[in-house]
Amino acid sequence: MAHRWANKYPKSVLMEAYQIWGGTPVFTVEDGPPPPASPKFTCYLTIPTVHTPNGGFEETRFTAWARSKKAAEHSAAEKSLEFIVSRGLLQAPNNAAVVPGLVGSPGVGDMPLEEVRLLQQRLRILSVQLAAAGHGEAPASSGFALPEDEEAGAVTPVDVDGLSEEQLRQELRQAQEQNASLRQALSREHTRRKAAVDALMSSPARQ
Fold this sequence. Notes:
Blueprint: H1 10-21, E1 26-31, E2 41-47, E3 50-52, E4 55-57, E5 60-66, H2 69-86, H3 113-132, H4 165-202
Antiparallel strand pairs: 1-2, 2-5, 3-4
């Protein structure tokens, strides 16, 4: 049975990470044993190059064997996750969700709401600025949004004047990674609170 990373199978964690980094891991499974073992499935996994402000790695290949196709895929994915953790781009699962991107970055609970709003606006401005520079359409937003609060006031615009295309793209990638990290932190907090409410509702009423 494949080990789980933060209650998810390794392949799922790997694919979610690459939704943020960009690129698609390629799994190729073949019948046949690695000699002299009994018949098994062999999985060849290729993970694309990753470059982030915190480091990265070039395209890397992993091989794993198991008695089922799915188990072979998860085993190869687990090897790749261990490799990625060693590069400091993922946190190993210690009864907590794996967060791709900025290891050690503050969680939502540690970040004022105004900073979250500023990050949102920074992501929008960078996307529009990059598109306006004539280098294609604006990159898609991560989909995370906070409700508008009229009392919060306007946030300070991000100064992007004088930045090159590459600098704009790097700033955008950083903002997207932070945005994705915030989304996952908010999702974990929502799950935790829902579990607490469910536990409270299911408790027998006191007489």
